[in-house]
Amino acid sequence: MGRESTLSFPGFGIGEFTVDSEAFSIFGVSIAWYALIITFGMICAVTYTMFRAKKIGIIVDDILDYALFVIPIGIIGARLYYVLTTLEEYNSFSDVLNIRNGGLAIYGGIIAGAVTVLAVSYFKKINFFAMADCCTPGIILAQAIGRWGNFMNGEAFGSETDIFCRMGVRNFLTDYKLIYVHPTFLYESLWNVLGFVLINIFYKHKKYDGQIFLMVFGWYGLGRMFIEGLRADSLYSSIFGIEFRTSQVLAAIIFVICTACLIYFAIKKPAKALYYKEPKAKEEKSKAEKSANSKAKAKTEINEGSTERAMPLSKRISVHLRFFRRNVRRKTKAIIKYFKSLGKKSDN
Question: Which of 29, 58, 183, 257 has the fewest CB atoms within 10 Å distance of its CB?
Answer without folding.
Answer: 29
